[in-house]
Amino acid sequence: MLNQFAFVGVFLVVAIVFGVAPPVLAWFFRPKKPNPRKSSTYECGVRTHGDTWVQFKAQYYTYALAFVVFDVEAAFLFPWAVAYNGLTLYAVVEAVLFILILLGGLFYLWRQKALEWM
Description:
By secondary structure, the protein is mostly helical. The chain is built from 4 helices and no strands.
């Protein structure tokens, strides 16, 4: 049993190193010669006209949030679909309840007209 926890510990250490090492290495090896032109905001090579800080519609956030919810749904339902033949009735009812909750969220978004592109 200790061997299994050691594997998890090694995996955790490797995951932390892979997450922290690239930004730290980039910070050490970056060019350190700042000037006003390098520090300016790059807008596809075109100079901005007017205020560059414009508000965007919160509707875009709603689209992104709905995408994340349904993307996570697919990630949770994939193992259930793979093991479908070996599942008990209780597991099938749980999966159907999970899908119904997500459909309730979809119908709520639909009813609030949050899915209409303006």
